Structure prediction request, 226 residues.
Amino acid sequence: GQSLEQPSEVTAVEGAIVQINCTYQTSGFYGLSWYQQHDGGAPTFLSYNALDGLEETGRFSSFLSRSDSYGYLLLQELQMKDSASYFCAVRKWSSGSARQLTFGSGTQLTVLP
Amino acid sequence: DSGVTQTPKHLITATGQRVTLRCSPRSGDLSVYWYQQSLDQGLQFLIQYYNGEERAKGNILERFSAQQFPDLHSELNLSSLELGDSALYFCASSVVEGGETQYFGPGTRLLVL
Prediction:
C-alpha cells in the first residue's frame, strides 16, 4: 500500500520560518508535490521535487530526500495570508505513466500576528 | 483564477438521487482529474482522463462514473447518492498526462440530505 504522513497542525508567528514535513511510503515513487489550499478554495500548486535537494521559489522552498522517503516545505517570512492547509502529494507511476497524485491529509498552518 | 471551470458551484440533493458535475479544463490541457474532498480530509483521487480516454482510476465507487468529451470537458456522474457522498468535488487539468502541475477548479460542493 502507500501512505503519506504530515503534521495535522502547525502554528507560527508572522515573519517567522516554518517547516512542514512529509514522509511517504509508496511503490513507484516519481516525485513529491506541494499544494496550498485556503478554506474551501481550490488547491494551488506550490512546488515539485523529482530529484534530491532543495527547490526555491520565492519565500517557499521544498526539499526531497528519496533515500529517506522524506520531504519538507519551508515557508519563510511568514505572512498572515499564508494561513492555509498545505498538502504534500506523491506522484507515482501507474500503468506506465506518472499520472496519479496521492495527497496527504494536509497540515493546517495558522500564522499569528 | 486557474482557468478551470466547474459547474454547479453548489448542489443540494436527496439520498438516492443522481447528479452530474461538469468541468471544463484550461485551454490546451488534455488531461482531466477528478478528486473528492470530504470535511477536513485530504484529496482523494477518483479518476483521470486524457484526450477522451480513461487513463487512471483511484478510489472511485461503482456508483460513480465519468467521461471526457471530444471538446475535452468532463462530467462526473454520481448516482444512488448517500449521505456520505457529501463533499467537495474538484476537477483539475494539466497540459500533458501526469503533468507535474495540476490546475484545480473552484470545486462543486455537494450536500446530500
